[in-house]
Amino acid sequence: MIIHGERPFRQRTKQGLTIAPMKSGRFMLRVKSSLSAKRVKQDPAFIPLMEDAGRMKIASPLAARVYRDLEIKDVRIYRKMVGRAKGLLKERLSVPDIEIILRKEYGPVEMIVISTGQIYPVREVPVVTLYHAAAVYINSA
User: Fold this and answer.
1) Are 87 and 47 in contact (CB under 8 A)?
2) Extended beta strands in the chain, E state
3) What pLDDT, in 10s, does the model give residues 88-120?
4) Cα–Cα–Cα angle for 90, 91, 97, nearest 5°?
5) Residue 34, exposed/middle/buried by CB under 10 A (0-12, 13-18, 19+)?
């Protein structure tokens, strides 16, 4: 709920209500969350979340090592690499094996510039067909 008024100096919480300043000069009023860091770390309900965070802790630097060696720098490629590494960690592959797989899949590749001026790796160039498959006729007469 947005309330008009003077912007407070910083975020404040009193009696379970948090007042947070916004850039627009307004401030937001919300109920204080009951979720604490202690509960996230100790509650069995958050075990899958903590396991995923552990995989991310390993996958991110692993993907960064491979990403640094690439010729083109695009954050989307890095994010795909991290996701792939997390998936391989979930499949219980070892870290050196994952690095080898990432280097094979995302290693240095030839780049191509298409007519629109966009740069793509050769393996990701969109293929455009001029004829719809149903529009091609074979004349056997």
Assistant:
1) no
2) 2-3, 12-14, 17-21, 27-31, 111-113, 119-121
3) 999 999 998 998 899 888 876 555 666 676 655
4) 105
5) exposed
> CA 103 from chain center: how many Å?
19
Query: Phi and psi (nearest 5°) for 43?
Result: -75, 130
Q: What does the block give as tokens for 13? A: 């919480």
pTM for this prediction:
0.58
Cα–Cα distance measured from residue 90 to residue 75, given in angstroms and rounded to the nearest whole number: 23
pLDDT of residue 62: 93
Distance, in Å, from the CA atom of 62 to the CA atom of 83, rounded to the nearest integer, reads: 11
Burial 75-113 (b: 16+ CB within 10 A, else e): eebbeebbebbbebbeeeeeeeebbeebeeebeeeeeee
Compute the average pLDDT of residues 4-11: 60
